[in-house]
Predict the structure.
Amino acid sequence: MRQFRTRIRVKGMQLFITVLIQSITSFLATASFGIIYNIPRRPLIQGGLIGMVAWMIYFALVAWRENDFLATMTASFVIAILSQIFARIYKNPVTLYSVSGIIPLVPGGLTYTVMRHAASDQYEMAIHLGEKALVLSGAIAMGLIFAEVLYQAVNRYRHKLKKKSVR
Amino acid sequence: MKNDQTDFHEVASVCVLAGKILLQSGAETYRVEDTMNRIAQSLSVPEAQSFVTPTGIIFSIEKNDVTQLVRIKHRGTDLRKVTEVNSLSREIAAGKIGLEEARKRLKIIERSTRVYSDRVQIFAAAVASGCFLLMFLGRWTDFFPAFIAGGTGQAGAIYFHRLTKIKFFSEFMSSLLVGLIALFSIKTGVGAELNKIIIASVMPLVPGVPITNAVRDVMAGDLVSGISKSAEAGLTAFAIGIGVALSMAFV
């Protein structure tokens, strides 16, 4: 019994370490991408935080359901909502916050794999993976657009409420 | 009447300058069009039309024969400029600054250099590559090769771009460098998983944002920009794939 417990504890510890490493590295990676894109300092940190939250959601969903599409779309939706809120508060363009958070989700590695297969005569594999990459970038765009539509709808609703209360 | 006409020309040139800076710094198509129309509106020219593609801007004011066209040759990502033009357009909309002041400020923004030096950018790319390796569940020992390869790739991209101005060439050369370094690390026994090292360290070069922006543009109805942006992104991906594939020939 005691052995069993220690094993769980070790597993819990490992899980904790994995989550810790994932969150630290995703924060660092998104913030560094912000530097490459020449984002000013303060939005850099905020963008890094958004990227971290989104990556943890992506990571958890992939581990839970093993479905890239769902995970990518949910994470990009979260990125877009958070970026809209930050952009609203600090009166900056939305891209500033969303761009670097999206980077880990983008099927860049997949795109590269497609090209490598195509360059080594494995065309069927290349087309197969290329379609997957296309669908995943579609998932990101869908997440972003859903968030925008939702944000506009909420704004319109709040506007209406305000008008009513004035009357 | 003549005075009016020159005034329209001035407004158009300020709008086009703002659009040009935005487009060259990697803003989305709808933002460029929206900002130009807004600036025109706040400078009391409500009937303005703009048509933006990744390679050029057409801006015209209805009822007058004022039309301006700008050709865009270089496109990069410099989000500080996007931010500054955005806040400038807010100030114009609030009526805080006039036409002349706006033009002066835009010129300053256009000429401004990057916030971070080359060295900082290279270091950032190196850190990002190392972190990506860990995010993709790579081994700890592969962190160092990915760090070096990613930094070298970014340094190569900056240097070769200055050398030739042909994006395809610089991307090809830097991904070749990345591939060779990754391969070298495997041969010397420092690195273990070749694929993960390469994917992680190629990340700073991969056209992630252009691909997403392209799909987004198509979904938003900016068909011309969407298609041409995806062609550009595809070309970049092609250059990177070819570069890495060539380095694999040295196995």
